[in-house]
Amino acid sequence: MEEDLRSLLQDLESLKGCVSDRYRIGSIDEMKQRVVSIVNLTKSGATRRSKVKDMSAEVVDSNPYSRLMALQRMGIVQNYERIRDFSVAIVGIGGVGSVAAEMLTRCGIGRLLLYDYDTVELANMNRLFFRPDQVGMTKTDAAVQTLSDINPDVVLESYSLNITTVKGFEVFMESLKRRFSQKSGQNSGVDLVLSCVDNYEARMVVNQACNELGQTWMESGVSEDAVSGHIQLLVPGETACFACAPPLVVASGVDERTLKREGVCAASLPTTMGVVAGLLVQNALKYLLKFGHVSPYLGYNSLKDFFPTMEMRPNPQCSNNACIERQKEYLQTKPARDAAAKSKLEAESSKNEGPLHMDNEWNISVVDDSEMDSQNSCGVSGALPEGLIHELPTAEKDHGSLATEESKTVEDDLEELQRQLDALNAA
Amino acid sequence: MEGWDPNTKSALTQIPLLSTRAGPRDGAAWTQRLKEEYRALIAYTTMNKSHDNDWFRISAANPEGTRWSGTCWYVHNLRRYEFALQFDIPVTYPATAPEIELPQLDGKTHKMYRGGKICLTVHFKPLWARNCPRFGIAHALCLGLAPWLAAEVPILVDSGVLKHKDDESTSAES
């Protein structure tokens, strides 16, 4: 391209030599100017910044991390540079996942693992991130293309597969387990999994993997009518897992009967998806870099601009075996956790000994946050806070007698059953 | 089950329920579950044939029974429209239902996700969730795919999106 333009410049120069008309020479010079600006444009598009070895806090235009490192100077984050040690897996590179990936990339995250089985389509262009020239590429490859341009410091891994199939799940598990850096005390090679998928089946698969690995994850979702969404923190054993109770969704706040559902399976807006991606990555950054309060559940109702929050404890009768195991482990480590919390509390109270003010004329007292929170925290059977509803019904109890009868009668040989079905199929 | 037609309801009551809560990663328990799946499918197919309502063929596409394929058909205005049918048993089965795919119809209707997965969200998913682990593949066909075909095929044919295979060949010849 650049060579073509250079030879065009030479042609114009030689053309100029043959022309005597002053007016014509002027317009040829103008054309030369335009070619030169195109050359410069192609050059600027091609330059990629080189990798940066250490994050610098120096405030210069050429430092990609100066505004992030300023978080440290302002006292929001203690050690921002730690972000380079973290690996985050993002499952589902759609309207939410791709934007979350871009946010983490711009924040200078150490490593991103990207999972999706889909390709980019023109129908995706109402959302952020993907460009029309990427149509036909796998979403993960297109994401790597854009993200590596934005920040070459981030290690990117692209997995174009369906995690709900048996084979896909194996690869998913192996990739999560593989260690990248020398960090100990973890079952998994990633620090956080972000679920940005658009269906219940895939969420249940992420839940399964994270329960088995004891891996903390965050779930996100946008409603099919595109006007509400939510994020949720899931710590296996400590909080409710995704199978502990039917999934919670934010009620749209309008009469459900007036919603027209026939004809389409899903609508989407770049706004709602951008908001949810922002909430998700903000929560992820707070969790990883240890600042602020990490939300256990945060809903977003865009029609009323209402943000319901809540906490959910695990279900001791959860149908997911791995969840039950993690719950047991969590209970076993309770004494150690309590002791640690107590010593921390003591250390803090010894720091600020003595009352700040000698008299308290108005009886002002500080109320513990946890007392306030407990109002909004509920077990799986508990009532839901305003604005939240269950997406699916709970499984009805097994009819005990029926179940035992079933298992007794099915003792046939599997191959015999296969033959019977084949015979029916052939008939 | 309000709102379902009497035929579907009576068919449903005659499909044997399953009891083993096991997915493809559960070894021997999955084999037990597979036997129950076969038993339900055999009963459902037999019943369809005896009621002159045969409408699908399905068999395991791999020895583990984690991938299934076959055909299904729907009769509209006395003409039979037939489609290839396939699905994977998800790793989280039976907590989540199989996602039934009709690849030939991919991109032809709104009521479908990419890859030809039929949309089951409203009419089927709540039923599956309520009846886990008692519903199996046969129930998914009866309550998921059958109503979907009944709702979508007439619309696709009448709107001209879907052509009968005889019409397609004649138009190609002329």
Automatic annotation (TrEMBL), chain A:
CDD domains (alphabetical): ThiF_MoeB_HesA_family
Keyword Phosphoprotein in annotation: no
This protein's record includes keyword rRNA-binding: no
Disordered: annotated segments: 335-412
UniProt keyword annotations, A-Z: ATP-binding, Metal-binding, Nucleotide-binding, Ubl conjugation pathway, Zinc
GO molecular function list: ATP binding; metal ion binding; UFM1 activating enzyme activity
UniProt-recorded name of the protein: Ubiquitin-like modifier-activating enzyme 5
InterPro entries recorded: D-isomer_DH_CS1, ThiF/MoeB/HesA, ThiF_NAD_FAD-bd, Ubiquitin-activating_enz
GO biological process: protein ufmylation
Domain of life per record: Eukaryota
Residue stretches making up the THIF-type NAD/FAD binding fold domain: 65-319
Biased composition (Basic and acidic residues): 335-360, 393-412
PANTHER family named in the record: UBIQUITIN-ACTIVATING ENZYME E1 (PTHR10953), UBIQUITIN-LIKE MODIFIER-ACTIVATING ENZYME 5 (PTHR10953:SF9)
Cellular component annotations (GO), alphabetically ordered: cytosol
Automatic annotation (TrEMBL), chain B:
SUPFAM superfamilies: UBC-like
Keywords attached to this entry: Ubl conjugation pathway
Presence of keyword NAD: no
Highest taxon in the source lineage: Eukaryota
Functional note: E2-like enzyme which forms an intermediate with UFM1 via a thioester linkage.
Residues annotated as the enzyme's active site: C119
Listed name of the protein: Ubiquitin-fold modifier-conjugating enzyme 1
One of the record's GO molecular function terms: UFM1 conjugating enzyme activity
Pfam families linked to this entry: UFC1
GO cellular component, one term: cytoplasm
Native organism: Ensete ventricosum (Abyssinian banana)
PANTHER family in alphabetical order: UBIQUITIN-FOLD MODIFIER-CONJUGATING ENZYME 1
Matches recorded under InterPro entries: UBQ-conjugating_enzyme/RWD, Ufc1
Lineage of producing organism: Eukaryota, Viridiplantae, Streptophyta, Embryophyta, Tracheophyta
Family per record: Belongs to the ubiquitin-conjugating enzyme family. UFC1 subfamily.
One of the GO biological process terms: protein K69-linked ufmylation
